[in-house]
Amino acid sequence: MSRTLHLNAFLMGVGHHEAAWRHPRTDPRRVGDVRHFQELARIAERGTLDSVFLADGLAVGPAVRHNIQAVFEPLTLLASLAAVTEHIGLIATVSTTYNEPFNVARKFASLDHLSGGRAGWNIVTSAQSREAWNFNLDDHPAHADRYRRAAEFVDVAIKLWDSWEDDALVLDTAAGVFADTDRVHEVGHTGEHFTVRGPLNTPRPPQGRPLLVQAGSSADGIAFAARYAEAVFTAQQTLADGQAFYAELKRQTIAAGRDPDLVKVLPGIAPVIGGTEVEARALADELEALIVPEHALSQLSGMTGVDLTGLPLDGPVPELPDLSSVQSHQSRYQLVVELARREKLTIRQLIGRLGGGRGHRVVAGTPEQIADQIELWFSQGAADGFNVMPPLLPYGLEAFVDHVVPLLRERGLFRHEYTGRTLREHYGLPRPASAYAARELVTA
Ligand SMILES: Cc1cc2nc3c(=O)[nH]c(=O)nc-3n(C[C@H](O)[C@H](O)[C@H](O)COP(=O)(O)O)c2cc1C
Domain Luciferase-like spans what residues (predicted)? Predict the structure, then answer.
C-alpha cells in the first residue's frame, strides 16, 4: 500500500511568526477568544488534516512585553474544539516534569472519551528555569533526569489506561452490576519517582491509549522516542539533517523492538504562501520587518545562554558554549548554532531566520513550490508527514488548506476524505490491547 502523508496543524496564537500579532492580517485580541481556535480546528478539518496541536509552557516572562505568551490550558481548550468538530485529531502538550501520571492519564482518557477517540499527548519534559520556579524549584532538573522521569511517567500512564479492560463495564441494572471488577485492575506501580496503586477512575479510552507524541531530538530525546513515541515532532533545517534524524530514529526504533512504520516523523514547516514567489517573499519580509529586535535578542540570549544584548546586530554571532553544558533544549540549541555557523549569519540575520519558526524550516513560495518541498522530504526519507506552522492565523492555515492540500491530493500523496474515525486511524496506527487482557489470554 502506498504511503500517505500525515499533516498536523500546529495552532499558536495568531501565527507562528513571532511578529504575527503585529501584522495587519491578524487580530491579536483573538488569542483570548475560544471561537478563534474553534474556527482554526474547523479549517484544519475541512482540509482533512490528521490533527491540530496545542503547545504549552508553564511560565510567562518579561518577553510578554513584546509577544503573545499567555495561553489557554491546552486540554481545556481541546475539549471545546472536540465539541465543534468530528474528525480532526486533538493533540496537546503536557509536561512530565511538572505533573503527576494519574492526573495526566485521567485528563487524556477523558478527552479521548469526549472526542470519540481523537486525543493525542505531546510528551515534553519542560526546559525553562522559569517553569521550575512555579513548581517549588530553583532550577529545572538536569536533562537526563527529566527524561528518566518521563519514561517512568509514561509507563505508569500506560498501565493506568490499561487498568480497565475494554469489556469491564457491565451496566447490568437488573443485577446491579456496574463494572466487572475482575477486569478493573490495580496497577501497583512502585518506582524511582512514582508510587501509584490505581486503577484509573476513567474507563478505558476509545483508542485504548491516546496517541503518544514526542518532540525532543537530542540523544536522550531520540532514545525516549524510540521506546514510546508513535509520532515525533522535530525541527530540521536541511534535507540532509532531516534524513539523518529520520534514519537514526527509525534505527533506534527497530533496536527497541518496534516496527519503524508505526513511528511517524513530522518535521515542522512554516509555509509563507503567495500567488507568486515574489509575493511570498514580500510577505516574509513584511513579517521580518515587524520583529522587535530587543525582544528577539533576549529570546536568542535565553536560547543560547549567552547575553547577546550588548552586541552589534550586524556583527557575527559570537562563540557559543559547547552543547554538553546545555541542560534545556539541546537539539534546538544545536540547530541554532549550526545554522549560524553554516550560513555565517549576523545576529540580525539569525534573528530573522528564527523569527519565522523558532528554528523550524520556513519555506516562502507558491503553493506548487510548497507542495514540491513537502513531496521531496516525504519521498527522500526525511518525513512521514509535516507539522504545519502557518506564520499568520487563520490566513496562513486557510491558504494551506485551500491551495496546497488540493495539490497534495492531486499528486496522490494525501487523503481526499477521512476514512477513519479516531486519531490513531488517521495516522494508520493500531489500537493497543490492554496489557491486562493480553496477560489473561496468555494465562488462560
Ligand atoms: C514541534 C515541537 C513542539 C514542541 N512543543 C513544546 C511544548 O509545547 N512545550 C515544551 O515545553 N516544549 C516543546 N517542545 C520542545 C521539546 O519538548 C524539547 O524540549 C526540545 O525539542 C528539545 O528537546 P531535546 O533537549 O531532547 O533536544 C516542542 C518541540 C517541537 C519540535
Answer: 28-382
